[in-house]
Model the fold of this input.
Amino acid sequence: MSGRLTTKLLRDIWHARGQFIAASMVVMCGLAIYVSLYSTYENLKSSRDSYYELFHFAHFFIELERAPVSSLRLVEAIPGVLRAQGRIVQDVTLDVEGNEGAVIGRIISLPADERPPVNDIHIVSGSYFSGSDQRQVIVNQRFCEANDLRPGDSFLATFRERKERLRIVGTAYSPEYVYPIRNPQQLMPNDRAFAIVFVRQSFAESALQMGGAVNNIVGLLRPGADVTQVLELAEKRLDRYGVYHKYGRDKQLSNVYVREEIQGLRGSAVVLPMVFLLIAALIVHVIMSRITEMQRTQIGLLCALGYSRAEIVLHYLGYAGFVAVVGTLLGTVVGQLLALRLLKLYVPYFRFPVLEARLHPELILVAFALSAGACVLGTILSVRRVARLQPAQAMRPPSPPSGHRIRLEQLGFLWKRLGLEWRITLRNMVRARARTVITILGVTVATLILIVGLTGMDFWDFLMEFHFNKVDRADVHVGFQAERPLSAVADVARLEGVRRAEGILQYGFEFGSGWRKKTVLVMALPPDSHLYSVYDTAGRRLDIPPDGLLIPDRLGKMLRVTRGSSLAADPYVRGKDEVTMPVRATAEQFIGLTAYADRAYLSRALGEPPMVNGALLAVKRGAMDSVIAQLKDVPGVSSIVSNRQVLEGFEETVAAMSTIMTVVLSMFAGVIAFAVIYNTSTVNISERRRELASLRAMGLNVDQVARIGTNDIVPLGVVGIALALPLARLITRAIARLYETDLYKVPAVTYPRTYVLAMALVIVFLLVSRWICKKKVRRIDIMRV
Done:
């Protein structure tokens, strides 16, 4: 591009600097989201992979009733197994000073004199086991922080109805509990209520009466080994020891949540920026259409002076290049700052000992390529039409649009009631159809972005409201160490402060249909349950079938079964053989893959008399702490989970992160909304300068002309908002399907408050744009135009 054309380009940018800044800001928003999300994705992925490798995170897990330590040789002899380690794993209740709530500790045994070869731990403070004290423990760092514990402190743990005081010698992180939840039903970590307690192997054997035995085997594989084949062989060799659950790393609970979150980040890093960049392309297209049309005679003159069409096209593509460069620089800086902020949000969410925060230079190149591609696309669409004109034809200004009566004028009774300003405005809106459509579409897109951006918290608010106010209305979930007769529920119900108690029976099963298999929790409820009900996603309460299963539709799709089919059900209970269970109903559900059955039916299917292994409690107001304290002293109680603590964990983790993400996305959406509305409004004024100047020359005052030039902004905006509302529902549903996983189904819900807030913001943007455009109209030089 010649120096003169460059000077002309810079002058054009300066004269339309407001639109240039608006377009650059849109590009900046899109690239900031791309850089922040993709950088966070890369950093989380590399942090996870390096952590797993450095601390030897297991490739497979085998849970069994009781196996001698010597059985490890059977596993290590399987082709493809590099190393195996036997452990004792058991949940117990804890009494922690200063924490009156229900606290569960997961006891995990480790070698006393050496670091574990599989699932090693990262010591944060204190030390590994030393000396002869058998009651030394190492506790996960986040639990200690949440309960103000440090090395040297102690707490009580209940082992088989006997309390032991354990002394903390160190705090640590474990690759097995990057996302530390006890089971899939917990949903979110709660550092005050769930502890990972590492103890000496010898102490675990003594306290849990497991002398010379293990109930959990983990191992590493050689490169190229098939984990499925290894687990099948391991089950055959360990069958006499009661294998009730086996799975690979890909199904390990913590790793599943980490993987789903990282993959979700990657998906968002691809989808969201594309939306923003497409809008940037639209804005650049509108700007360049206006510039090329206004400079039509200049283009013809440049052709006549000897400039080639390629040089002229490159001249206007330079505008796109400047937008791309400015947007990329700003987007990279803002995106990297946001990435650092996002990583800090993940610190309480994922428990990595070290969270990498590297800058990835390749992202800058990709970001520039994306922005340049979007801007060039918008420019080419505008330039190619004018570039085809012959010089003589281009040097002639375009013919003014022909005037004609519009259909609205045929409604005489209405037309006569309109003032002059609105008659002119309506004629202009109808005659300049393309401009009117672009304005409406711009407002529609802006409204859609704001609604989608603000919908983030609606999902979690709805999900928590739905689950804890409709489905799970219990205040406390109690787990028993073993199956108990129904009378155990009556014993719990007699505790002071308990308003109602219901016994439940739940087991893990491996469901199979042909070669397809899936591990699922079956929750069996009493037929008259008031504390736990099953609802579908439409809010309809479902009856539990008396002689079969009610399963989630996602599970049915995975196993390719429907109502009336039968499933092979292998229970994770020692001594219980595989049984066949009929599927009596399927339903769409939001959370998890839990299947439901009648309590009496599940006992019959397992060949047992009526029994329970857990209870749901409704507690009187103000009696929660008292009930939990009493439950800790009840023999045979292995776990106590308060729904209040679950909600607190939600507020501390997911709610905080979702709120910040929603605020950031909404701010960016607001920038785009304003940019779209401002640009379309400004282009309208620029294209009507001659018309508005003529009205001034005909005797109308400045205020009248300003109103005529801007009266269309608000009504067209209202039409755009009206079109956006039904479209937002469709887009919300599409996004809900996009983010659906095996763990949860995203409810396609948007609360009225979100629509009201989005509409209010767009109307504010419309009014601000109108105010700016009025100032532009007042500055029109009649003589010069």
